[in-house]
Automatic annotation (TrEMBL):
Residues 43-256 form the ER-bound oxygenase mpaB/mpaB'/Rubber oxygenase catalytic domain. Pfam families: MPAB_Lcp_cat. This is Oxygenase MpaB family protein. The lineage of its organism: Bacteria, Bacillati, Actinomycetota, Actinomycetes, Micrococcales. InterPro entries: MPAB/Lcp_cat_dom.
Length: 295
């Protein structure tokens, strides 16, 4: 039973039963320690189990921007291949976090190239038709802010302290924003959250039928039946982590009672299944140890 659960979890997160697809094994290669390294805030946050809840939260928040929602609706194959889209996002996150610099830059260049192809129009909050590209500065900023806030907030709720504190994580992860084209990423948690509020205060965000459809899909994704009970708990945890105004816009009620401690129990169980270090972190440590031996 334990092995089956572990296999299901690794298949969902990495696309393979053992958590070591070729791109993870390649993290052991490279010529430098990467942008962050052991002991960094980014390694601590992205190596934690709260990332599973953060991913849910980030998708919910990102959907509130009509431009980001249009890109998902018009171009994403999330319904046909939801796990493929998930593992693609995870691959970029893990590669930038644990890979060497050249690998992180190549992965980010692929993301930028994909963004250039994602174009169309959307209706803004006032009902006006607006042309967009996924590479537009405001959309890149929105996605980066929603992502950074989600992973920071969930780590603060369910994990241990961050080396250097929240500002260290925001400052470090600004590098990832720059790699995908953001020219002025926030460098402090206060600035990051102020910019997020700015989108709301400017009246940019909206929740229409497309958003509510995506929320329903995120609430009930096509996972294997054995994983659904744990996922439902984590979904409630994601709801609990949201600001009340975000829950209201998304049409989400109050989280279930005890959502936060129940989610913590699920995350601790996942940690016991997967071990203290991910296969990605182990590969990165192998690379760093090899480089140290060469000096």
């Amino acid at each position: 039973m334990r092995d089956r659960w572990r296999s299901h979890l690794l298949q969902t997160l990495s696309g393979t039963d053992d958590g070591s697809p070729p791109w993870v094994r390649q993290l052991a290669e490279g010529t430098d320690a990467g942008y962050f390294g052991p002991g960094s805030a980014s390694w601590a946050v992205h190596g934690g189990m709260a990332t599973m809840v953060a991913g849910i939260r980030a998708l919910l928040v990102q959907a509130m921007h009509p431009g980001a929602m249009a890109g998902v609706h018009d171009w994403s194959r999330y319904r046909e291949d939801p796990l493929g889209r998930l593992t693609g996002t995870i691959r970029w996150l893990i590669t930038v976090t644990f890979g060497d610099r050249a690998t992180a830059e190549r992965s980010s260049a692929m993301v930028r190239a994909l963004h250039e192809r994602v174009r169309g129009t959307y209706l803004d909050a006032s009902g006006r038709s607006v042309p967009y590209s996924a590479g537009d500065p405001d959309l890149i900023e929105w996605v980066h802010l929603a992502f950074t806030d989600a992973f920071l907030t969930c780590h603060e709720i369910w994990e241990t302290e961050i080396p250097g504190g929240p500002d260290a994580y925001v400052r470090e992860w600004a590098v990832a924003g720059e790699l995908i084209g953001l020219t002025d990423p926030p460098l402090t948690a206060a600035d990051m959250r102020a910019r997020l509020r700015g989108f709301s205060e400017a009246g940019t965000l909206r929740a229409d039928d497309r958003v509510h459809d995506v929320v329903r899909f995120i609430r009930r994704p096509p996972l294997v039946p054995g994983m659904l009970p744990a996922y439902r708990i984590m979904f409630q945890g994601a709801i609990a982590s949201l600001d009340p105004s975000q829950r209201a816009m998304l049409g989400l009620g109050r989280p279930a009672p005890l959502a936060v401690p129940a989610t913590g129990l699920v995350l601790r169980s996942a940690r016991s299944l997967l071990g203290e270090r991910s296969t990605s972190e182990e590969a990165a440590l192998t690379r760093i140890a090899r480089l140290r031996e060469m000096t």
